[in-house]
């Protein structure tokens, strides 16, 4: 079964993938950091799977970021190496974890099983 991503999601994920590749190439990344960045990418990709561009651009409030802005921020942040020399590669993992959580909190929730609010299995 093919994974469904809208064009915007593919572009945003490509930006994160490229940023992480640069981090891994230009830093002293060990296996733990490589696996962590891979897991972060997978969390971001799963978070936007099946969503439309409209959903990616939706903001819960005027002063909050959309899912698209979260992904753009992570890609931009992870392309910069200023913080690497001061805080180490672990900072990029922590930063990604914070924003992966933010992204998942913004993701539209599917309707409950049964669709009418009834408890499953009753």
Topology:
Blueprint: H1 7-26, H2 31-48, H3 53-57, H4 67-79, H5 82-87, H6 89-106
Helix pairs in contact: 1-2, 1-4, 2-6, 4-6
User: Please, what is the average pLDDT?
Assistant: 91
Give the strand content.
under 5%
Q: Tell me the helix content.
A: 55-70%
Q: Biggest sheet, in brief?
A: none
Unreliable parts: none
Order of helices and strands: HHHHHH
* Secondary-structure content class: mainly alpha
Q: Given the structure, what is the number of helices?
A: 6
Distance between the first and last residues' Cα: 32 Å
- Overall, the morphology is elongated
* Structural domain tally: 1
Walkthrough of the structure:
The protein has one domain (7-106). The protein is 66% helix and 0% strand. It has 122 residues and is an all-alpha fold. The protein has helices spanning 7-26, 31-48, 53-57, 67-79, 82-87, 89-106.
Question: Summed up, what is this model?
Answer:
By secondary structure, the chain is an all-alpha fold. The chain contains six helices and no strands.
Main traits of this protein?
122 residues; mainly alpha; 6 helices
